[in-house]
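Bug #77: duplicate submission created two jobs. Keeping one. Sequence:
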Amino acid sequence: MTERPVKQVIVIRRDLKMRRGKEIAQGAHAAMAWLTRRMAFGDGRACVELSPVETGWLAGGHRKVTVAVTSEEQLMAVYEKARAAGLVAELITDSGRTEFHGVPTPTSVGIGPDYDDLIDPVTGDLDLY
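Kept job's structure:
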C-alpha cells in the first residue's frame, strides 16, 4: 500500500505588489490560520484536536507549496472552490494598517493540510509562486 502524500498550499495575490516582507507575513498567516482557528485555550494551555492527516503532516516534513493568483476574484474563486471540496481553507484579509491605505484587503489563502489528491483539483492549475 502506498502512502498518500499530504501538503498545504498557500495562495498569494501577486497583483497587490506587496513588499516582499509583507508577502511573507501574509503567507505565514495563511499557513498558521487553520491551526490557530481551532485552538482552545483553557487554564493557560492550548488544546486542539487534529485529524490523522493533520497529525501526520505535523509529525512529518510540513510540506508546503506556494502558488500565485493575479486578482482578488481569482483568490476568492480558489477559496470558494476549496471550501466546496470540503477542504480546510482560511482566507487572510490584511487590516490595511501598513499597506493598502487603511482598506482591509484579502491577500492570501491557506488550504489544508490535506491529501495531495484532494487539493490538486483546486490548486493544480495555478502557477508556482
